[in-house]
Structure formats: structure tokens, C-alpha cells
UniProtKB/TrEMBL annotation:
It comes from Novosphingobium clariflavum. It comes from the Bacteria. This is YbdD/YjiX family protein.
């Protein structure tokens, strides 16, 4: 049985556009074993850039 707090944390992260790092690592190992896996900090920066960095240099307005 999974931890309800961990499930809530994961759901909240997904709601704000922050995928789970452990899911990313499992995906990379299963589907792209030849590619390097980003560390947690690089993963966070990459996801933030993908979500916010493409428009107006990262600004909302």
C-alpha cells in the first residue's frame, strides 16, 4: 500500500507542472538506457525551462 502523503505530494507536483523525478529516472532506465540521466537539480531546471522559459524570456507578461 502506498503512502497517502507521498501520493498527495506527487499529485500536487503534477498539478503545477512538476513531474516526479523518480518516475523520470525509471522511464530513462527502461526506455533510454543509452542516454545519461539528469541529476535532480538539472531535471528541475529543465522542467522549469520547458514550462516557463519559452515565452518573453521567462516572464509571464
Amino acid at each position: 500500500m502506498s503512502d497517502p502523503l507521498a501520493t498527495l505530494r506527487k499529485a500536487l507536483h503534477l498539478m503545477v507542472g512538476m513531474p516526479d523525478y523518480a518516475d523520470y529516472v525509471r522511464h530513462m532506465q527502461a526506455h533510454h538506457p543509452d542516454r545519461p540521466v539528469m541529476d535532480r537539480r538539472a531535471f528541475f531546471r529543465d522542467r522549469q525551462q520547458a514550462r516557463y522559459g519559452g515565452r518573453n524570456g521567462g516572464r509571464c507578461c
